[in-house]
Design brief:
Layout: E1 18-22, E2 25-29, H1 39-44, H2 51-67, H3 72-84, E3 95-97, E4 100-105, E5 114-119, E6 131-135, H4 136-139, E7 147-153, E8 159-165, E9 172-178, E10 184-198, E11 204-210, E12 216-223, E13 232-236, E14 243-248, E15 254-260, E16 265-271, E17 280-281, E18 291-296, E19 299-304, E20 313-318, E21 328-331, E22 337-344, E23 348-355, E24 358-365, E25 371-374, E26 382-387, E27 395-401, E28 408-413, E29 419-424, E30 436-444, E31 450-458, E32 469-473, H5 490-493, E33 498-502, H6 512-516, H7 524-539, E34 548-553, H8 555-566, E35 573-577, H9 583-587, H10 595-602, H11 609-618, E36 631-637, H12 646-658, E37 665-670, H13 681-698
Parallel strand pairs: 32-33, 32-34, 34-35, 35-36, 36-37
Antiparallel strand pairs: 1-2, 3-4, 4-5, 5-6, 7-8, 8-9, 9-10, 10-11, 11-12, 12-13, 14-15, 15-16, 16-17, 18-19, 19-20, 20-21, 22-23, 23-24, 24-25, 26-27, 27-28, 28-29, 30-31, 31-33
């Protein structure tokens, strides 16, 4: 029996058929009109959205609000619970860098971080010596949306670059702040990717500009005190299929230009001894060759998959000759042990790797070659390696948590192997790890692959099929969903839910091959893995099909759309946040921000009839059919440049037209935000409370 009763009539989107023919195949899209023709300009000025489109989106929001009206009190309760688990006046442990240590803190009731510094050896909790460099709440005043990109101080600690986005469109404006006076200088640099790399003298910096299609196409060099129009073009990337970013080294000897797509890398480096020189090429882009660099004094350490190193290896090359022919192996390729990232310091080389599905940190003495791993005991856990802000140090920082263990922050001495606990995440409302169980189980996929599934539930939860379950999945771009502590999901678990993460193919949870087996022509493995996880949880009585609410966002939203088409009877409800569901149309439109860079992930249906047909076979929007769909909540952001608002809008219109069932299809469009939703920490909790209220309502627990 449906949990949704007495609903008003749902909006009916008008049809305006548009037919497109590719490779001799014609396809008609009746809801293509929802795509704003002026989307590039609208992302920067949302008020110019076409009136008919706005009217439809607002009607959808009104219908969604009516369907969820009886959960208002529940949403308030959930929000209060989640907020109660956050230490509102929390502060980070400052990171030492030169004469200072830098960090962030929040105040009670504050939505945004405040950036501060203290003297290097100052007391962390001594507010009398804490210098506030940037007050996020003050900067956000009067703005419906506001997101800070971060604060990056110059080597001499006199100035800092900071960036903000006040539309949700991810076009960031950069400002330069005088750290002594607290005032911003005259410099205003617009349409950037959000950050910059300082020159060593602190008088200039490099930054990335986004073009009209929201692609990082150019690197500029800005001199403090001059207008942006006078900035020098340092490098231009002509291929729209590549992402680009700029950064600096720890020892300020090089500016790195990182150019890459999802399978190919290229680095260009600029010596800071001559900032006007042409960036030099390290290793030219060769399809399938990936590499990333870090400084090492007289050498570069390079993480790469060259020469068949599928799970990556680390090589070194002389600073004066970093080209591929000079690469020398330092850490060999070991099949099944995936090296994820690396860092180098004066006396040590450090890397984060994944073995048997779990992360570990490995430290090597650069002089002796001796290695050791930092060990942990739990069955499933998450690690974060933040390293250090200084090159000449033996101390690095990392974080550890599990589904039951709150996050712990450690300083680790790589020479003495001493581990110092700096901070344990506080849960003001209380948390007893012993009340919960976390497990790692394996669901058999149709082709025999074992799909890891991480579970969290209360010890007193009855595992007889009666418990509702929120099953989360992503499965794209090689991204691994960590088994980390999440205070928000406790609001579900404490209501008897089993919280489950399906570590499906498309991520790197079980190595690089796990990723390759869930991309391009093998993308359907991702969807079958997720359904296999639902089958296993039903079979083993952790839950039952009717009580499973599936959730995924962005590429995970594509997953939601695919499984809704493939196995709608195995889910009681589906939450699809900023869902990439109109895959074929988007991959056929090379003007959209992410389309050319995404072809190595999904295939290029413009050039290839084979990939046209492959994508068409699973694209959620193209495969909506006359069948009974479960209750579905789709969430979009009006200024989202990654998954444009019209994808969920078109999908919902078609689902509502086709479904033969009685469950509602809901669309919530955030008219003042983009891909990440609300920017403030409590505003974001309100959104999570809304999503969880939908899950609880579907499960019949309201």
């Amino acid at each position: 029996m449906s949990a949704f009763k007495n609903l008003p009539a749902a909006p009916v989107a008008p049809k305006n058929p548009v037919t497109d023919t590719r490779h001799g195949i014609s396809r008609t899209d009746e809801y293509a009109w929802l795509r704003a023709d002026n989307w590039q300009a609208m992302f920067k000025e949302p008020s110019i959205l076409d009136a008919e489109i706005r009217k439809h989106l607002e009607a959808e929001n009104a219908y969604m609000n009516a369907a969820m009206a009886d959960t208002k009190d529940l949403q308030k309760t959930l929000f209060a619970e989640m907020r109660g688990r956050i230490k509102e006046d929390d502060s980070s442990v400052p990171m030492k860098d030169g004469a200072f240590a830098y960090g962030t803190f929040y105040v009670k009731g504050g939505e945004h971080p405040r950036y501060f510094r203290i003297p290097r050896e100052g007391g962390v909790n001594d507010e009398t010596i804490r210098q506030v460099l940037l007050d996020g709440d003050k900067e956000a005043e009067g703005k419906a949306y506001f997101r800070i990109a971060g604060l990056n101080h110059s080597r001499d600690h006199a100035r800092a670059i900071w960036g903000y986005d006040d539309k949700g469109s991810e076009y960031f404006t950069l400002r330069v702040r005088d750290l002594e006076t607290g005032e911003d200088l005259v410099d205003v640099v617009e349409n950037t990717g959000g950050g910059g790399a300082w020159a060593p003298d602190g008088r200039s910096f490099f930054y990335t500009v986004l073009d009209e299609n929201h692609r990082p196409s150019k690197i500029y060099h800005h001199v403090i005190g001059t207008p942006q129009s006078k900035d020098r073009l340092a490098y231009e990337e002509k291929d729209p299929g590549f992402f680009m970013s700029v950064g600096g080294s720890l020892i300020d000897d090089f500016i790195y230009i990182d150019i890459h797509d999802h399978q190919t890398s290229e680095y260009r480096i600029l010596s800071t001894e001559d900032l006007t020189a042409e960036p030099s090429l390290v290793a030219e882009r060769v399809t399938g060759l990936e590499y990333s660099m870090t400084e090492g004094g007289d050498v570069f350490y390079i993480l790469t998959n060259a020469d068949g190193a599928k799970d990556f290896k680390i090589v070194e090359a002389p600073v004066e000759a970093p080209q591929k022919e000079h690469w020398r192996e330092v850490v060999p390729h070991r099949p099944g042990i995936l090296i994820l990232s690396h860092m180098a310091y004066a006396r040590h080389l450090v890397w984060l790797q994944r073995r048997d599905g779990l992360p570990e940190i490995v430290v090597r003495d650069r002089k002796t070659g001796e290695e050791h791993a930092i060990a942990f005991a739990e069955e499933a856990y998450s690690l974060g390696l933040s390293g250090a802000a200084e090159y000449h140090t033996d101390v690095i920082r990392f974080s550890y948590s599990s589904m039951t263990t709150p996050s712990q922050l450690f300083d680790y001495n790589m020479a003495t192997r001493e581990r110092k606990l700096l901070k344990t995440q506080e849960v003001p409302s209380g948390h007893k790890p012993e009340d919960y169980v976390t497990r790692r189980v394996f669901a058999p996929a149709p082709d025999g692959a074992a799909v890891p599934v991480t579970l969290l539930y209360r010890k007193d939860t009855q595992l007889d099929g009666s418990a509702p379950c929120l099953l989360y999945g992503y499965g794209a771009y090689g991204i691994t969903i960590p088994a980390s502590f999440n205070t928000n999901c406790l609001s579900l678990v404490d209501r008897g839910f089993v919280y489950a993460i399906a570590h499906i193919r498309g991520g790197k949870d079980k190595g690089f091959q796990w990723y390759e087996d869930g991309k391009m022509a093998r993308k359907p493995n991702t969807f079958r893995d997720f359904i296999a996880a639902a089958d296993y949880l039903n079979q083993e009585r952790f839950t039952s099909y009717a009580k499973i609410v599936a959730e995924g966002g962005s590429a995970g939203g594509m997953l939601m759309g695919a499984v809704a088409n493939m196995a709608p009877e195995k889910f009681g409800g589906i939450i699809a946040a900023v869902p990439f569901v109109d895959v074929l149309s988007t991959m056929l439109d090379d003007t959209l921000p992410l389309t050319p860079p995404e072809w190595p992930e999904w295939g290029n249906p413009i050039e290839s009839a084979e990939f046209y047909n492959i994508i068409a076979s699973y694209s959620p929007y193209d495969n909506v059919a006359a069948k009974s769909y479960p209750a579905i909540l789709a969430i979009g952001g009006l200024t989202d440049p990654r998954v444009t608002y019209w994808e969920p809008a078109k999908w919902v219109a078609k689902l509502r037209e086709k479904t033969t069932g009685s469950e509602p299809i809901l669309l919530k469009t955030n008219m003042e935000a983009g891909h990440g939703g609300a920017s403030g920490r409590f505003q974001r909790l309100e959104e999570i409370a809304f999503e969880y209220a939908f899950a609880i309502k579907v499960a019949g627990r309201v």
